[in-house]
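Could you join me in thinking about how sequence relates to backbone shape in a protein? To get us started, please write out a protein record for me. Would you write everything just below, so we can both look at the same thing?
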Amino acid sequence: MNLLLLLDTDFISPNHVRLSGRRLEHVRDIHRLQVGDSLKVGMLGGYSGNGEIHRLDGEYLELNVTLDCPPPPKLPLTLILALPRPKVLNRVLASATSLGVARIFLVNAWKVEKSYWKSPRLEEGNLLHQRILGLEQARDTMLPELQTRRLLRPFVEDELPGLIRDTLPLMAHPGSGIPCPRAVEGPVTLTIGPEGGFLPQEVELFGRAGFQAVELGPRILRVETAVAALVSRLY
């Protein structure tokens, strides 16, 4: 935790917060801070700054906070991700958030197991928690937008034309023979398929929507590795 994220409900006065639970335990047991110490804090959806510990015990963490620093800018990137395995989903969401991805769509594909959509990891509370972990890692305060789409064809044919307008639409597809561009200036819409890749008809579907298939090289990467590698290459 490189940033202690605060919520509206944490404030007991304009510049004083009281915390308990996971955040208290982390500051006390992991950072091992004491009364009088300072740490980085940030308001979810707002500014960040510093907090000075006023109370720290087994019940509460109380801090006097100053929030005067704007969050780092988001990447102008929309990530369209075929829903990964539930265990991988948590890591991907936290990683994409820490990298600064602005918007994420979790979509269906033929190789996405139906059981993935029933996983408790898709519950709103977990989706929020994983993104918060990413914000804490990156010292960011602005959540990426997150949406799910269980019907791929209507999403690609009906929604994507508007979403990709004025962006560079790319689809990660090993074997395409076209290297992923580097250091792109401007917005990108990036699609990454499931483990095992998109079916040829799904590749064709995205192609008709205007997506260019690109690759990182001959190696087949895990989804979480591909996300980090592609985002780093693009920006």
In short: The mean pLDDT is 95. Helices lie at 22-30, 86-99, 124-138, 152-163, 200-208, 223-234. The chain has two domains: 4-69, 75-234. The longest strand covers residues 48-56.
